[in-house]
Every structure is written in C-alpha cells, then in structure tokens.
Amino acid sequence: MDKEYVWYVGYGSNLCKDRFLWYLDGKQRTFFGVDLESWEGCRDKEWLGESVECKIRYPLYFANMSKKWRGAVAFLDCNHFNEKYLTYGRMWKIASEQLEDIWEKEGKGDKWYNALVPLPIESPDKRPVYTITHAGHIKNAVPANAYIQVMACGLKESHQLDDEEIIRYLLSLQGIKRRRGKKHIRGLVVKALQHKNARHW
User: Fold this and answer.
1) Which of 13, 168, 174, 191 would suit a FRET pair with 61, their CA atoms being 20 to 30 Å apart?
2) Collapsing DSSP states into helix, strand and coil, what is residue 143?
3) Strand segments (E) across the chain
4) Where on the phi/psi map is residue 26: left (φ > 0), alpha (ψ -120 to 50), or beta?
C-alpha cells in the first residue's frame, strides 16, 4: 500500500536534524553532555531528506521537567494565533505512520504533547501540515543549557541565522528572557555553533 505523507513541523530542539533523526532511526546520540539513549525508532525508518524552514504564528514557551534534558522543553501555545508572534519552525516530510510514532515517543500524556494540531502553513506539495503540543498552556519553566544549545544549532541549520539573530530570538522567548542574561546566552550559542562546526557535540 502506498504511504501517506505529511509535513511535521518541529520547533525547539526539533529544528536540529541530528535531533530529529533520533526519532526515526533510534540510534544513541549525545548533545552537549545529554545522552539520548538508543531505542527502537520509528517502525518505518526511511527518511526522504526533505525539510523546509517555516515561521509559525503561535508563541513558543517552555514547560515541564524533562529527565533527559534536565530542564523544560518547548511547546507551542496554539490557542493564541497572531501575526506578531514569530516562532521558527522546520517542516519535515514524513509518513503519517512515522508522525504517529514520533508523537508516541514525545509523550501523549495529559501533561505533555496531548494535541496533534494542523497548522495554517502551506507546504511545498500541498500536503497537510501538523505539529504536536499541549492543548492548553502549561506553567512556564526554564530550559537547560544543553536544550538551548541544540536549539541554537537548529536555528543555524534551518534558517541560516547569524549569531546575533539567534541570541536575540532566544532572549525573546518565555522561560529564557527573564531567567538568562544576554552574556550567558551568547556564551552558550557561540560554544554550541563552534562544536557543531567541528562536528563535535
């Protein structure tokens, strides 16, 4: 039977290709001292190699406590659409079955990613566009340094932002702007991009 393809919009750490591919192939990876242990991966491990940058008009925020990241992780507040909001996203073309497996791995529980949301974004081939988030708004929390660094690498990969643009964007986000100073974020970004350029996480 022919596969049904969709576009999955990643944000937060899922802007980063190596991070995203962990969902598909399940191979162990380490990002800035955080070990993502191996798992079975998606039932279908094929990757088409297609991704497209996008801008999301819902605000990004950080919530919950991830044991593996040792800090909060990113969510979209899809109850508040406004053209003034800017969240950088990355569309990944995958099979609908892969999307189900990724959603399951992210966590479908009431306190996690319990909503599959169609996004008002036009895909290159007119196929439907989805993301996953929480249906409401969870209490804001602070992401760990490693999570911020993976985001920085993903922003560079997907949107080709320069260091200053990445720093400004990160400092604009709830959970970072009042808890992390510019000097601290600059240090994280510079170090992250140096490591990525050297292909050393």
Assistant:
1) 191
2) strand
3) 5-10, 29-31, 34-36, 51-56, 60-66, 71-76, 87-95, 115-118, 129-133
4) left
- Alpha carbons 11 and 54: distance in angstroms, whole number: 10
Hey, what amino acid is at 33?
G
> Is residue 129 within 8 Å of residue 7, measured between CB atoms?
yes
Q: What tokens appear for 194 in the block?
A: 């140096």
Look at the chain and count its residues.
201
User: How many Cβ atoms are within 10 Å of 168's Cβ, its own excluded?
Assistant: 12
Query: Based on the structure, what is the number of domains in the chain?
Result: 1
Q: Which residues contact 3 (CB under 8 A, 6 or more apart)?
A: 44, 95, 96, 97
Q: Token digits for 62?
A: 């950080």
Dihedral of alpha carbons 189, 191, 192, 197, sign: positive
By residue range, what is the domain housing residue 111? 5-197
CATH of residue 98's domain is 3.10.490.10
What tens digit of pLDDT does each residue of 95-129 get? 999 999 999 999 998 999 999 999 999 999 999 99
